[in-house]
C-alpha cells in the first residue's frame, strides 16, 4: 500500500514550477496570465479532451516598442503544463493563426512542459489570446495517467496567475467518477486557482465502470502450497492482464524466498483492479481472512506496487504497520531486481526526504486518505519512506540473511512481532547491538530510558548465561530473568539479576567451605555426605549452611574420639577396656557421618570417648569385684575349714 501517485504528481509540478513559466513570481506582475481550462473526460469519439483559453497581459515597461538603448525587447512564447501523450495538439491565436507548440518529451513524468510560440511579438501593454486543444487517446498508460475503455485516471493541471478549471465527467450512467481536489478551491466540478505563475495540480479525476470487469485464473506453486489466483481487470485493459499473467507467477516464489519463510495463509487469492475508493486512496490494499486473500490495485499502479501488495501476503507476522509496509517494499524492490529486466515495468520512485519528523512506532493505523489534508498525507508519505529507509539501513548493518532469519523465527513462533520483540530477535539472531538504530528511527524519545535499562538488563543476562556454561548454576536459574527481559520488565529483571549475583556470591563462599570441609573429612578418613553438595547445587543455601555446621561439629567430635581411641594405653586401661569396642563405636560414628546423621555421629564419637575415659574406673571395679570374689571364697573356705576342724574336735571328744 502506498500513495506514490499523488506524491509523484506533486514532485512533477514542483519541477515544472522551477523551470516553466514566463516571469518570476517574485517580480512585479510584469506578465499577467489567466487561463480557463476544460477537461472533458469522455469527449467526442471517447478520448479525453483538454481545452485552454489563455490570456496574456504584458505589463513589462522594458518591452516597449522602442527601448532606451535602441534595441527592442518583447515576449514571444509562453510555457504551460501538458499531460504526457497529448495528441491532436492545436493552438490558435485570436486572429486564427496556427501557433507552433513544442512539448518537451525528455521526462518520463505524466506532466510535461509545452512551449507555445506566438505568431507576433508581444510588447508592453498588449494582450495576447491563445486557444489550445489536445486529446488523450485510449490505451495511454503513463505514470499516474491512464486512459482505457473502462477506466480513466487523469491529473488535472493548469497554470497562470488565475486559472478556472472545469471538469466534465462521462455522462454514461455506467461510469462512476471521483474528483479529488488538490491545490485549488472547488465548487462542484469547477475549480479556481491563484497565486502561482507556473502550474497547479488542480485535482485528480478518476472515472471507472465498476461492473466492466474480466478475469482469468492462475496457479502458482510455492514451497508448501499451491495458490489459486483469480485476476480481475477493467475491460479494455488487456495489456495489463497479459502482463500480470507473466509477472505474478514469476514474482511470488522470489517474494517467498526474500521473505525468509514459506507461505502459510489461505490458498485462494483474488487480485483485482479497483478504483480509488476501493484502495482507500492508496495504490493498493491487501487483506486476508481464513477463507482467502484479496489484493486490490489501482490501474495506475506500477509493477513495484503490485509486487509490494503481493508481498503483503506474508505480512501477518508483523504487529506494527511500519514493519508490514517497510518489509513489503523492501521485498518488492529486492524481487523486482531479481526478475528479468524486461519483465518489470516502472522503477522504484526516487525518494525524497520525508519532510516531517516521525518515529515509526508512532505511525498511525491504515485509514482512507481520500480527502486527507496535506499534513496527513505528509505523515503517510513519511511512514512509507522512513520504514523502507530504516530497513535498508538495518539490512546494511546486520545483513539480508539475518533479516530473513528473523522473519522465519517470527513465523515459526505463530505470534506477530511488535517493535519490541523485533529488536530483540534482530539482536539475538545477528549478534549485533542495534538499540541505537531503533532509538533513532523507531521508538519515541520517551523510550530512551527504557532502552538504556534494556541494554543493561540484556548485557547482564548475556554475561550471566555465559557464566552459567562454566559455573554450577542450578537448572533454570536464568529462566525467570529471561522471561522478565523478554517481556520488557527490566526493573524486575535487574532486581532478579542482583538477587542471583548475591546468590552466586553465597554459593561460591559455601562451595569454598564445602571444599575445605570435604578435605578435612578426607584427612580424618571420613566420607563427606553428598547431601550437602546436593543442597548447594539446588541453591538451598540455608539447608546447606545448617548441614555444613552439623558436619563441622561431627568432625570435631570424631577427631577427638579418633585421637582418644587410638592413643597409647597402660595395662591397667587395657584391662579396663576388656570386653569394650570403642573402635566399633568410632566406625558407627563414621557411618552416621557419611549418611549426614551428624547428631548420631556425634553420639557415637562421644560414646567412644566415654568408653576410653571410663577404662581405669572399670579396671578398678573389676579388681574390686575379683578381690571381693576371692575374699568371699577365702571366707567360705576358712569357714569350711573351721567347720571341719570343729567337727573333727567334736568327734574326738566323743
Summary tags:
seven-stranded mixed sheet; 654 residues; alpha+beta; single chain; five-stranded antiparallel sheet
What does this entry look like structurally?
With 654 residues, the protein is α+β, with helices and mostly antiparallel strands. The protein has 17 helices and 20 strands. It has helices spanning 4-19, 238-259, 303-311, 321-338, 374-398, 400-413, 419-430, 435-441, 448-468, 479-486, 490-523, 530-537, 541-565, 571-577, 582-594, 598-613, 615-653; strands at residues 31-40, 48-58, 75-83, 87-93, 101-103, 111-122, 127-136, 140-142, 145-147, 151-158, 162-168, 176-181, 185-187, 190-194, 200-208, 213-221, 226-234, 268-273, 284-289, 292-297. The strands form four sheets. It has a seven-stranded mixed sheet, with no helix packed on it. Strand 5 (101-103) and strand 6 form a beta hairpin. Helix 5 packs across helix 6 (400-413) and helix 12 (530-537) runs antiparallel to helix 13. The radius of gyration is 50 Å and the shape is rod-shaped. The termini are far apart. Mean pLDDT is 84; it is low at 17-27, 575-579 and 615-620.
For the biggest β-sheet, the strand order reads 4-7-2-1-11-14-13
Q: What's the helical proportion of residues?
A: 40-55%
| Overall spatial form | rod-shaped
Question: Could you describe the largest sheet, including whether it forms a barrel?
Answer: 7 strands, mixed
The tally of helices reads 17
Q: Which structural class do the helices and strands define?
A: alpha+beta
- Rounded to an integer, what's the Rg over CA atoms? 50 Å
Q: Please, what is the average pLDDT?
A: 84
Amino acid at each position: 500500500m502506498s500513495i506514490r501517485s499523488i506524491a509523484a504528481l506533486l514532485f512533477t509540478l514542483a519541477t515544472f514550477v522551477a523551470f516553466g513559466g514566463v516571469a518570476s513570481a517574485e517580480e512585479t506582475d510584469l506578465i499577467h496570465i489567466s487561463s480557463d481550462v476544460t477537461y472533458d473526460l469522455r469527449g467526442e469519439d471517447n478520448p479525453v479532451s483538454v481545452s485552454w483559453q489563455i490570456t496574456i497581459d504584458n505589463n513589462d515597461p522594458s518591452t516597449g516598442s522602442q527601448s532606451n538603448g535602441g534595441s527592442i525587447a518583447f515576449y514571444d512564447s509562453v510555457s504551460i503544463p501538458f499531460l504526457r501523450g497529448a495528441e491532436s495538439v492545436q493552438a490558435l491565436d485570436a486572429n486564427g493563426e496556427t501557433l507552433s507548440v513544442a512539448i518537451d518529451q525528455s521526462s518520463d513524468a505524466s506532466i510535461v512542459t509545452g512551449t507555445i510560440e506566438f505568431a507576433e511579438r508581444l510588447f508592453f501593454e498588449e494582450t495576447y489570446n491563445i486557444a489550445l486543444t489536445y486529446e488523450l487517446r485510449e490505451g495511454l498508460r503513463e505514470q499516474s495517467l491512464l486512459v482505457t475503455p473502462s477506466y480513466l485516471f487523469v491529473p488535472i493541471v493548469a497554470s497562470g496567475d488565475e486559472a478556472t478549471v472545469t471538469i466534465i465527467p462521462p455522462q454514461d450512467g455506467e461510469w462512476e467518477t471521483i474528483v479529488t481536489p488538490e491545490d485549488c478551491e472547488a465548487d462542484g466540478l469547477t475549480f479556481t486557482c491563484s497565486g502561482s505563475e507556473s502550474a497547479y495540480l488542480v485535482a485528480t479525476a478518476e472515472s471507472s465502470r465498476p461492473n466492466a470487469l474480466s478475469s482469468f485464473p492462475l496457479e502458482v506453486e510455492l514451497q508448501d502450497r499451491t495458490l489459486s489466483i483469480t485476476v480481475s481487470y477493467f475491460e479494455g485493459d488487456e495489456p495489463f492482464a497479459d502482463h500480470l499473467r507473466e509477472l505474478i507467477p514469476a514474482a511470488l516464489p522470489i517474494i517467498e524466498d526474500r521473505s525468509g519463510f514459506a507461505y502459510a495463509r489461505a490458498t485462494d487469492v483474488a487480485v483485482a483492479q479497483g478504483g480509488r475508493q476501493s484502495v482507500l486512496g492508496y495504490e493498493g490494499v491487501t487483506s486476508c481472512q481464513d477463507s482467502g486473500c484479496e489484493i486490490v490495485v489501482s490501474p495506475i499502479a506500477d509493477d513495484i506496487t503490485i509486487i509490494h501488495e503481493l508481498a503483503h501476503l506474508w505480512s501477518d507476522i508483523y504487529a506494527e504497520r511500519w514493519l508490514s509496509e517497510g518489509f513489503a517494499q523492501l521485498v518488492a524492490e529486492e524481487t523486482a531486481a531479481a526478475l528479468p529486466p524486461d519483465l518489470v515495468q516502472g522503477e522504484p520512485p526516487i525518494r525524497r526526504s520525508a519532510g516531517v519528523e516521525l518515529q515509526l512506532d508512532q505511525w498511525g493505523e491504515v485509514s482512507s486518505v481520500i480527502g486527507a489534508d496535506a499534513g496527513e498525507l505528509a505523515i503517510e508519505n513519511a511512514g512509507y519512506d522512513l520504514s523502507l529507509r530504516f530497513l535498508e539501513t538495518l539490512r546494511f548493518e546486520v545483513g539480508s540473511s539475518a533479516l530473513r532469519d528473523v522473519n522465519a523465527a517470527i513465523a515459526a513462533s505463530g505470534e506477530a512481532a511488535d517493535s519490541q520483540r523485533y529488536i530483540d530477535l534482530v539482536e539475538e539472531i545477528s549478534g549485533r547491538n542495534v538499540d541505537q538504530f531503533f532509538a533513532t528511527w523507531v521508538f519515541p524519545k520517551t523510550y530512551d530510558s527504557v532502552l538504556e535499562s534494556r541494554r543493561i538488563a540484556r548485557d547482564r543476562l548475556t554475561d550471566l548465561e555465559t557464566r552459567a556454561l562454566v559455573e554450577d548454576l542450578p537448572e533454570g536459574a536464568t529462566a525467570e530473568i529471561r522471561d522478565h527481559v523478554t517481556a520488557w520488565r527490566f526493573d524486575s529483571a535487574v532486581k532478579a539479576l542482583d538477587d542471583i549475583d548475591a546468590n552466586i556470591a553465597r554459593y561460591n563462599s559455601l562451595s569454598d567451605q564445602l571444599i575445605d570441609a570435604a578435605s578435612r573429612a578426607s584427612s580424618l578418613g571420613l566420607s563427606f555426605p553428598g547431601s550437602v553438595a546436593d543442597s548447594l547445587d539446588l541453591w538451598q543455601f540455608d539447608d546447606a549452611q545448617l548441614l555444613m555446621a552439623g558436619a563441622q561439629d561431627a568432625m570435631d567430635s570424631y577427631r577427638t574420639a579418633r585421637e582418644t581411641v587410638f592413643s597409647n594405653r597402660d595395662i591397667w586401661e587395657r584391662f579396663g577396656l576388656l570386653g569394650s569396642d570403642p573402635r566399633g563405636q568410632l566406625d558407627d560414628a563414621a557411618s552416621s557421618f557419611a549418611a549426614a546423621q551428624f547428631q548420631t555421629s556425634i553420639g557415637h564419637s562421644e560414646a567412644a570417648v566415654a568408653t576410653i575415659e571410663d577404662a581405669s574406673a572399670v579396671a578398678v571395679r573389676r579388681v574390686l569385684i575379683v578381690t571381693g570374689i576371692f575374699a568371699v571364697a577365702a571366707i567360705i573356705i576358712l569357714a569350711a575349714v573351721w567347720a571341719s576342724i570343729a567337727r573333727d574336735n567334736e568327734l574326738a571328744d566323743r
